[in-house]
Design goal:
The protein has a six-stranded mixed β-sheet, with helices on both faces. Strands 1, 13, 14, 17 and 18 form a five-stranded antiparallel β-sheet that branches. The chain has a four-stranded antiparallel β-sheet with strand order 6-5-7-8. It contains eleven helices and 19 strands. It is globular, with a radius of gyration of 24 Å. By secondary structure, the chain is of the alpha+beta class.
Length: 387
């Protein structure tokens, strides 16, 4: 048997072995009932191995088939991650990664900046929430998923990445050449307000795996210093870990539902707060950069009536992704559920509207002394009327 035929049979045997591992599960059953399509998959793979002009490995063909399967879902939040991409995702969730310091998401199928992280290269360069990234290193982002975009923007500290963005508010294209750095994300920062020490201010920049513990520690520290009202700042918070935000909400809202998770079979799991919440007047600051897990917290605050939302409408990401570990260090991020607020409102694609709408004036680098945080000032005013 010549080498070409050997490679074809090796491919066929490999695919059949993969199928045999799945036949005892529901997925395997679905494959068996579509045997004709499986036959086409094997036939196409065999034709490629035998006739394609350039060399291609069986591993690459199988990985391409997996990626194609996930892409066929038409869900930009579901993605197959190769080992390198999966490792980057894990480091991102853990709160430390190398890059330029911006969070991105999909809006109208375009890679959009959800929020720059304060003090990072992206923020210093002037990247803004709402910027649409049209090119990364001169590579168009059309049909690119979020994880691919993030993977390209990350890299060794000291190296450069070029972003071309479209800024809707100014109707212009802008180029940014940004030097990558190691990004350490401080997820919780707080203090008593200098102008009114009866009011505590806590900013949560994202929900990583230890944010709930950091939040509890910060809340207790400020409580021991004595405060009568609380501001939670979720502006430009892109979200993060589901259980973490539930734990944070449990410290702020009374006993009852935090969020309802609705699975693909329409079963609902309700995650609840224990009722050991702090009982002070509260305002939560939100804007278009508040997404996903931060919307869960904002929705819980609003529906339970323990606080007021001040700012602008949130991003509107009301679906949940599960992370699956695959062989050889790869992973799968798959949309598996949607979430509803405690009052069972579906906010996906719509966002959460604030109780009090306050626009934030444009921040101009170099003119910091002229900038007024109108949203924070309104939050202070609301709380001063209650204490």
């Amino acid at each position: 048997m010549d080498n070409g035929k050997k490679r074809i049979w090796q491919f066929i045997v490999t695919v059949l072995i993969l199928i045999s591992f799945t036949v005892t599960s529901l997925v395997g059953f679905l494959f068996i009932t579509n045997f004709k399509n499986i036959g086409q998959l094997i036939q196409v793979g065999a034709l490629i191995k035998a006739n394609f002009l350039w060399p291609v490995s069986i591993d690459d063909l199988i990985e391409g088939a997996i990626e194609g399967m996930v892409n066929s879902l038409g869900d930009s939040y579901s993605v197959y991650l190769d080992p390198q991409e999966f490792k980057q995702l894990q480091s991102h969730i853990q709160g430390e990664f190398g890059g330029i310091g911006i969070y991105v998401g999909l809006r109208d199928n375009k890679i959009t900046v959800v929020a720059p992280i304060e003090g990072t290269p992206g923020a210093k360069a002037g990247i803004k929430s709402g910027d649409i990234i049209v090119k990364i290193n001169d590579k168009p982002t059309e049909n690119m998923d979020v994880d691919q975009a993030v993977a390209i923007m990350k890299g060794e500290p000291g190296t450069e990445v070029k972003l071309t963005v479209y800024r809707p508010g100014q109707n212009e294209y802008l180029d940014f050449n940004i030097i990558r750095e190691i990004i350490n994300v401080p997820t919780v920062e707080g203090d008593l307000l200098e102008e009114n020490p009866d009011i505590a201010y806590i900013k949560i920049s994202m929900f990583t795996t230890n944010t709930d513990e950091d939040f509890a520690e910060e809340l207790k520290k400020l409580w021991d210093r004595g405060f009568k009202a609380l501001i939670i700042d979720l502006r430009y918070n892109p979200g993060g870990d589901l259980q973490t935000v539930v734990n944070v909400a449990g410290q702020l809202i009374p006993e009852g539902p935090v969020v309802h998770i609705v699975s693909n079979d329409n079963k609902t799991q309700t995650l609840t707060a224990p009722g050991n919440n702090i009982k002070v007047p509260m305002v939560v600051l939100i804007n278009e950069g508040s997404a996903s897990a931060s919307e869960i917290l904002a929705g819980a605050i609003k529906d339970t009536g323990v606080g007021k939302l001040v700012g602008t409408t949130t991003f509107g990401k009301g679906i949940v992704q599960s992370i699956y570990f695959l062989n050889e260090g790869a992973g799968l991020k798959l949309t598996t559920a949607k979430y509803l607020t405690p009052n069972k409102n579906d906010i996906h694609g719509k966002g959460i509207e604030p109780d009090i709408v306050v626009q934030l004036p444009e921040y101009i680098p170099g003119r910091e002394e002229e900038f007024q945080d109108t949203q924070l000032l309104k939050a202070i005013q609301v709380l001063e009327e209650q204490i």
